[in-house]
Amino acid sequence: MLGRILFFGAGVAACGSSGGALAQDAIPADGDEGTPAIVVTGSKLGSDPQRQARSLQILSSEDLASRGIQDVAGLAKVVPGLTFTRSTYGVPVYSIRGIGYFDNSLTAPPAVAIYIDEAPLPYSALSTGASLDLTTVEVAKGPQGTLFGQNSTGGAINFVSAKPTDRLSVGLSSDIDSFGQFTNEGFVSGPIAANLKMRLSARYERGGDWQENDRTGEKRGGKNLLITRLLTQWNPAHNLDILLNINGWRDRSDTQAGQLVTLRGASPPLPQGVQSHPAGVRNNRLADWSDDGTFARDADYYQAYLRVFYRLENLTITSITSWQHLSRDDTSDSDGTNFQLLQSRTPGRVSIFSQELRARLAQGPVKWMVGGNFQRERVKDELALTIKDSSFPFDAIQTKTRHRNRSWAVFANLDVDVTDRLTLEGGGRYTDERRRFQGCSYDGGDGSLAAYVGRVATTLSGTTVNIPAGGCVSLSDRLLPAVTDTEFSDRNWSWRAGLKWSLRPAMMLYANVSRGQKSAAFPTVAGTVASQFAPAKPESVIAYEVGAKATGFGGRVHISAAAFHYDYRDKQVRGKTIDPNIGPVGALVNITRSSVWGGEVTVDAEPLKGVDLAAGMNLTSSSILGPFLAYDAYGRRRDLGGEPFPLTPKWQLFGNMGYRRTVGSGGSEVFAGASIKYQSGTNADLGEIAALYLNPYAIVDLRAGVTVNGSWTVQAYVTNVADQKYGTFTSTVSPDVNVRFTGMPRTFGLRASYRL
Exposed, middle or buried by CB within 10 Å (0-12, 13-18, 19+), for 650? Predict the structure, then answer.
């Protein structure tokens, strides 16, 4: 490893998606000698991960590199219970044990909290650059309300960046794959002056057009992504640590094109070319898109983060200040054809400021922490759709929304060692949140939508309603166009109680009960009725979990097992509502009652010197309880009770094998490995509609290479060896078509790296 492994820094982050933990707050530097012991900065000071009374998984930088995981999406290949997909417009969606939040909006508050070095990323769209130059990635499963506050009902993912080193250190790596994607990454780290160290990291990904147009043979899908980070660590006194993190990324990559699955019998009929377009299951590469545009991301992100840590005997005080800004203007063609059934443009801008202050005392058998935090957000989110070849009676629609959010929280945590074997843990957090929303859908500029809605409003109201071209078309209860201007306030408690029982030094049992809360959410949807902008109410979950962890055979085998049950209230999902003017449209829906139960087991072993084995299994059974009348993905009102959650596979299986052998006397090694992931089938939307079903699949990856003198490494790899055909998401992107977004086809690659 490059340095100490941190886990879930001490309280972490900002209200709305932050929190406190009884944690080791000192800022670690990358070590220069050997491989240090694992240190976890969650509930127990300096404790081994196998001693943590919660389900968590830790992946080192070596784990990530050897398995070819270079981005956030790759974590779903190695973490049981974690799923990743992208929405129709490219917004990342994370779920753990069936708890996630799927929405197309830039401002979709996640159910899985994302952090970089204790700094929160309140929205999933901000996480593109999180995987740069890491020491570890840690995944905590289940509600993390007292650790991370709101919007962590599913869990939390913490990316721990590699810190500045005490001596000059340089690393370079380069990767090329069979689609022509180049990935170049490097860092330089070391002291600048007495008590002052810096680390500069960067990664650039370019090329790799892996999608092929089955009509023209044109290629697309390539990357154009630059990520940078500058860390400055200053220790002006022996008990004062200051870390400044300035980072950002620029993304000009192609957006993914959809693959046409089925036509839906539109009325009026679609153009003849659409009706004869190839559809159905094909290989992962084939898709289609319009000839009249370049569809790509255009996003820029910047973050500045200051962490100040002060120690005074047993008392520590920590301040975390963060500012971040994202601007984007992405375009995509999602309909799977060369016609304009659904082309989108999604301009947006996010500015977030957060501040946390906490104090922690560790003395004898008692450890406590108290603190508070504040967060302010300013968001602009827009959605412009071009649909002139669709069955809609207009050519374009544009939705514009504005969000002003403010939240603050106070929290406290307490751990008490009742005996040398029994520990009681508890914590609570009070959150006060206010969200203000303004939004309306507008005519696309040609006047077709304005004229259509004006005629409908005139007929229904008996009064002439004239809407100018480009004007607001969202009708109020009075059947007049009006901008929705509303506010939602919420006050809530998150809490956790648990116990940990050490049977012996190498075996531990635990039991937890916790309550998590997720914020209300306003949608960015296209529609002509103001009520479509109604928010989804806050969701809450009470989670029960029991587990066991054991280490045996001289520390060469680690086993973790857990069983869980979640009692859900008002789960937020992306569903449908009926716009009386244009039919079924997207909306946010609350499921009154639902539940999740399941279990998981992970095993890590080194049975022989140089042989590493890992296996994991996750069972997640979700269900909508009782009669639940709502609209399915096709806009049909039905009882959806008894259905599982969308995008929630019941089974996930993982396996990894690595072999490493020293050759010669200069510290050189040869290595090889293989990994496999299996995921059972799941439906992508409400209603269990066959056309939206995602089939089960298994992905096998292979790798082999050599390390020379501990500095040079060359590795060859193959991902998706069997070229498995699979989808990551299927959607009714319009009333006319169902579209699939596919996973990556078989890819060969070569990676070389050097470290001084």
Answer: middle
Q: Which residue has the tokens 């090694």?
A: 669
Helix, strand, or coil here: 98? Answer: coil
d(CA 134, CA 6): 11
Count other C-beta atoms under 10 Å from residue 240's C-beta.
13
Continuous segment of H or E residues that includes residue 612: strand 611-624
Q: How confident is the model at residue 30 (pLDDT cuts 50, 70, 90)?
A: very low
DSSP 650: S
C-alpha 586/C-alpha 524 separation (Å) is 9
Q: Let me know: does 166 contact 29? Beta carbons within 8 Å.
A: yes
The ranges assigned to domains in the chain are: 49-755
Whether 623 and 611 have beta carbons less than 8 Å apart is answered as no
The DSSP secondary structure of 181-247, one letter per residue, reads -EEEEEEEEEEEETTEEEEEEEEEEEE---EEETTT--EE--EEEEEEEEEEEEEEETTEEEEEEEE
Tell which residue, 354, 347, 285, 269, has the closest CA to residue 320.
354
Task: Return the DSSP state at 4.
Answer: P
* Right CATH for 49-755 from 2.40.50.140, 3.40.50.2300, 3.20.20.70, 2.40.170.20: 2.40.170.20
Question: In terms of C-beta distances under 8 Å and separation of at least 24 residues, what long-range contacts does 546-549 make, across chains too?
Answer: 546/509, 546/510, 546/511, 546/512, 547/53, 547/54, 547/55, 547/509, 547/510, 547/511, 548/507, 548/508, 548/509, 548/510, 549/50, 549/51, 549/52, 549/507, 549/508, 549/510
Q: Which of 708, 394, 720 is nearest to 582 (CA)?
A: 394
Q: How does 7-16 read in b/e, with b if 16+ C-beta sit within 10 Å?
A: bbbbbbbbbb
Contact 438, 402 (CB under 8 A): yes
DSSP assignment of 587-600: EEEEEEEEEEEEEE
CB 5 within 8 A of CB 39: yes
Three-state DSSP class for 457?
helix
Type of residue found at 197 = K
- The whole-model pTM stands at 0.91
The tokens describing 682, both together, are 């799941």
Q: Assess contact for 681 and 698: CB atoms under 8 A.
A: no
Q: What is the mean pLDDT of residues 43-51?
A: 50
CA angle 346, 347, 352 (to 5 degrees): 115
Which pLDDT belongs to residue 268?
65
Cα–Cα distance measured from residue 366 to residue 370, given in angstroms and rounded to the nearest whole number: 14
3-state helix, strand, coil in the chain (%, to 5): 5, 55, 35
Instruction: Render pLDDT for 132-157 as a digit per residue (tens, 0 to 9).
Output: 999 989 888 988 877 666 678 889 89
The encoded tokens of residue 270 equal 């679609």
The amino acid sitting at 145 is G
pLDDT digits (tens, 9 = 90+) for 495-546: 999 999 998 888 999 999 999 999 999 999 888 888 889 899 999 999 999 9
d(CA 698, CA 700): 7
Collapsing DSSP to helix, strand or coil, 515 comes out as: strand
Mind giving me the DSSP string for 485-504? Answer: EEEEEEEEEEEEEEEEEEEE
Nearest to 169 by CA among 3, 48, 370, 304: 3
Buried residues in 251-273 as b, exposed as e (16+ CB within 10 A)? bebbbbbbbbbbbbebeeebeee
| Strand-pair category, 286-287 with 211-213 | parallel
